[in-house]
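Weekly puzzle thread! Below is a chain. First person to post its structure in C-alpha cell form gets bragging rights.
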Amino acid sequence: MSLRRRFAMFSMLALGVTLWFDVAAEPPLGASSSSVLTAGSSPAAPPVAGLTVASSTTSTTSTTTSTTSTTTTTTTPLDPYETFVANIRPEITVLDAFETPDGERAVFEYAITNPTYFGNPLALMITDRTDDGTWLKVQIPVRPNGTEAWIRADDAVITSHRFRAEVNLTQRSVTVWNGEDVVVETAAVIGAADSPTPLGSFFVNDLVEKWDSSAYGPYILSLSGFSEALETFGGAIPVIAIHGTNRPELMGGAFSNGCIRIPNEVIKVLAKTVPIGTPVDIVA
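Winning reply:
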C-alpha cells in the first residue's frame, strides 16, 4: 500500500539543549484585526495515488464441458486530506534514525528523545515508506528546516488524521481545515523584516500550555521549523511556533522574531482541536 507524500506528525524534542520561542518585547505599532471562525470549503487537493486491493469477485459460466472463472481488482482511492503520523513507542527513549533504509545512522544537532523536550509523547510526520512497509521516512524537527530521515516501522504506531493548516505571509493570515471544512480563519502577526517567518512545509510537533497574559498567550503550538535568520534566540535554538499573544492590537502586522501570533481565543480553539502532526504550510 502506498502512502500519500503529505506531511504527517512528529513532536519536537531536544536532549541537553534549550528550545526558545519568540518572547522579545514587541514594538508599539501595529494594525488590529479580528479573527473569524468559519465553516466552508477549501480548494481541491491535488490528486493522489490510489490503493489497489485484490478482490475475489468470481463469475462462473457452466456448460456441459467447461467452467470459466474471472478475477477482477478494485481500486480504492486514498483520502486526499489524510496525514499519516508515526507515534513512537514509549519504550523507545532515544530514536534511531538513518540516512537510508538499513543505511548509515543520521547525525543531528541533538538527540531525538521520547518523551519530547516538553514532556509529550514523540510523534513524527510520515512523508514516505518502503514498499514492504518496514521503514518509514519522517520529517525530523532539527536544522536545516525540512530534514528527513528513515526510522524502523516497528518503532512506531501509525495513526492518521485530516487536519492541515496554511500560514499566508502576504495576507498575514492563518487558515486551518479538517478535510474540506474550515475550522479557523484568522489574522496573524508574522516575522519582522530582519527576522522573517521561514517558508516551507512543517508540522505541529508539540503543545505547550501557558497562561492568557503571557507573551505566548495561553498555548504554544510548536512547529518542526526554525528561524533561518537567527542562529540563536535568548541563548537557545530559535524554534518557530504558532501561539497566542498579549498584544492583540498588533494583529495583521510583521513584528515577531519569526513566530506566528494569533488571537488568544483562536489559539484556545486550535489547542483543543488540532492534533499533533498537523501539516503546516508557510507560503509567501
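Puzzle host: Confirmed. Bonus trivia for everyone else. The chain has a mean pLDDT of 81.
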